[in-house]
Recover the amino acids of this structure.
């Protein structure tokens, strides 16, 4: 049963990776964590369906035995995905890798990977997801953002965080 | 099923341990290390309870794997949540807009992180990768100083090209 459970988790994860690559290459636009979650659910259900229908001799373990390991792998993968996609540090390393002698002037990095662009793209994303609005060229927080910020500031106090961001 | 629910319930200990450890050590820049210490304490307590409850069960190893996977899942979930509070870029922008009532895009750049400015954030990231030994700086010149950084760049670029993720960052 132990081998079955681990194998099914790993098989589901492999199917997830395959689906993930196919979907990401086909779909343009939003491809965030929610889509990863939906893909993972589809991969998990698909694996159980295939095994239940075509490998009837196999003793299928209950979902609670396979889901934790599978979702642990999905969580690890999501960290890798978001890390590579959003990390400023990785982007800096990539820009250095592209440059002559793997070296670049700080101003040149700022030219290629503009901090202004970085801020504007985030502001645009925040507007699209209704966290902020733009009125007369000024950005203001909407209720959802105000509520979250209040919690965030409270947590800063609890965790004694001084230099966030 | 009960073994997973118990691991999820015990995960409430992570923020508790983390906050208590921060209050005990009171050292700036120690938050991440203390978070991992909180994870360790949580996993040890979880395993101890599972050992006591399920050791005589035939499927003990299965319970242990389920528990451990759930514990790691909860730790990663907490890590992401804490990272958003401590380092979240969008969260910091929204917080600064709230603290200043309203800001234009130039103001967001100037007031980033309670007035430290966006340059501070960029410098913080550069210092971070420098501390890891991936880059070195000579005056205003930044240079890759480790083979690992080259591997990271290659893997990252390959990964982004396969999934058509664009430049990222």
């Amino acid at each position: 049963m132990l081998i079955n459970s681990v194998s099914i988790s790993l098989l589901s994860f492999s199917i997830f990776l395959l689906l993930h690559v196919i979907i990401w290459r086909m779909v343009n636009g939003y491809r965030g964590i929610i889509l990863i979650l939906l893909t993972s659910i589809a991969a998990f259900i698909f694996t159980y369906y295939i095994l239940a229908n075509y490998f009837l001799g196999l003793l299928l373990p209950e979902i609670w035995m396979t889901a934790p390991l599978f979702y642990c792998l999905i969580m690890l993968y999501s960290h890798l995905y978001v890390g590579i996609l959003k990390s400023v540090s990785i982007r800096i390393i990539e820009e250095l890798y592209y440059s002559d002698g793997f070296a670049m002037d700080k101003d040149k990095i700022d030219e290629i990977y503009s901090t202004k662009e970085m801020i504007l793209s985030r502001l645009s994303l925040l507007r699209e997801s209704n966290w902020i609005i733009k009125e007369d060229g000024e950005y203001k927080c909407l209720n959802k953002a105000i509520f979250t910020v209040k919690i965030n500031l409270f947590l800063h106090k609890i965790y004694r965080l001084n230099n966030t961001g | 099923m009960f073994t997973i629910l118990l691991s999820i319930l015990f995960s409430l200990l992570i923020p508790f341990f983390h906050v208590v450890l921060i209050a005990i050590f009171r050292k700036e820049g120690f938050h991440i290390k203390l978070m991992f210490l909180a994870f360790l304490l949580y996993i040890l307590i979880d395993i101890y309870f599972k050992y006591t409850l399920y050791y005589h069960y035939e499927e003990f190893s299965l319970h242990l794997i389920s528990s451990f996977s759930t514990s790691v899942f909860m730790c990663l979930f907490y890590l992401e949540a804490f990272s958003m509070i401590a380092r979240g870029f969008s969260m910091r922008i929204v917080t600064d807009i709230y603290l200043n009532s309203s800001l234009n895009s130039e103001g967001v750049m100037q007031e980033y992180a309670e007035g430290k400015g966006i340059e501070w954030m960029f410098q913080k990231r550069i210092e971070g990768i420098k501390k890891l030994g991936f880059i070195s700086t000579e005056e205003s010149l930044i240079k890759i100083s480790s083979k690992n950084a080259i591997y990271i760049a290659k893997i990252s670029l390959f990964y982004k090209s396969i999934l058509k993720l664009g430049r990222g960052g």
In short: The longest strand of chain B covers residues 135-138. Helices of chain B lie at 2-10, 13-25, 31-54, 60-87, 89-99, 105-115, 118-131, 147-163. Chain B has a mean pLDDT of 89.
